[in-house]
Amino acid sequence: MAATAHVAWAADLLGYDFGPEHPMAPLRLHLTIELARALGVLDADGVVVADAGIAPDSLLETVHTPEYVAAVHAASRGVRDVRRGLGTQDDPLFEDMHDAAARIVAGTVAAARAVWRGEAQHGVSVAGGMHHAMPDAASGFCIYNDAAVAIRALLDDGAERVAYVDLDAHHGDGVQKVFWDEPRVLTVSVHESPASLFPHTGYPTETGGPHAPGGAVNVALPARTRPEGWLRAIDGVVPEVLADFRPQVLVTQHGCDAHAHDPLSSLRVSTAALRAAARRMHGLAHQLCDGRWVALGGGGYSVVDVVPRVWASVLAEAAHVPVPAHTPIPEEWRELVRREVGAEPPVVIHEDGDEQHADPSWSGRYDPADDVDRAVMATRSAVFPLRGLHPEVY
């Protein structure tokens, strides 16, 4: 009998550590897993927690160049290669960098293959979602692009259509780059406008290569977009393009740096909206892909108040044991935060609840005076005709 959720996790994944001053603190993963454990998610029926080890170079090189993989090996020994993004402020060197990054790839690929092979209905890799890494360079805290390698593995294993939806505040540029001209992959990214945020790509006019017109979909939202607008933007694009593409597997990236408390973006999304988006992705997987869903982590730099609560909710959603919004956070986890972080932890899973985000429907409510609605229409106008869809709202 297939598992409900394959969770890629091992304590060794905490070794992906750029140092104490870097925003991408491994503590956020530790607190996520411990919160999920305290809530009983990891012990739920049908949940399998698995360590996939370290991805071999041959797997990494399905996306990354051999020269770049060799450079990462050298970086693990202290050899900088700024031309390839190794040893920069965003991606400083650390010991065993290659092994740490390759572990993330192995976990995400294992989760994706478990889903494709029918061993699990859903797969989760909260350490994954390293969407900025390019075939020949590190970028934006990302050494290897686990999402792209996993999608390539699905294609190599026989999948004919894989959809990737990126909900991080930052554009999923690395994944888009790898599959820019690949008609078997649809990439969708909902992010803050590149005019105001790294990596300064992801405009609606970026729509895919000559062999995959409409294969790249970008929703570029204005800074300070609030929860209702963010969910309306997702609803205004994602369901229609996914239904048209008819994916066999849905891979989603749940970077939670769109949250209002995140220091690295200017969006104003809530934890409840981020949870609601995960529920939408889960629902679309069941509607379109017979439930084949692979959920990844990504960005998110509010280490205590946001990341653990959002990603524990993603894990709970994938395990089919969703946690109600106002569920009290177990005292054992709160004490862990006090002891290890010296901060006062949140009290409930989502203070703002779910009710305000129940139905921010798009159809029939387009407002040309609204900045978010105009951003959504820009995407629909750029992409939908390429896919034979009507951009107009009826």
UniProtKB/TrEMBL annotation:
Region (Disordered): 348-367
Signal peptide interval: none
Pfam family membership, one: Hist_deacetyl
GO biological process, one term: acetoin catabolic process
Entries under InterPro entries matching the protein: AcuC, HDACs, His_deacetylse_dom, His_deacetylse_dom_sf, Ureohydrolase_dom_sf
Pathway(s): Ketone degradation; acetoin degradation
Compositionally biased spans, kind Basic and acidic residues: 349-358
Family: Belongs to the histone deacetylase family.
UniProt-listed PANTHER family: HISTONE DEACETYLASE HDAC1 (PTHR10625:SF10), HISTONE DEACETYLASE HDAC1-RELATED (PTHR10625)
Name of the protein: Acetoin utilization protein AcuC
Lineage per the UniProt record: Bacteria, Bacillati, Actinomycetota, Actinomycetes, Micrococcales
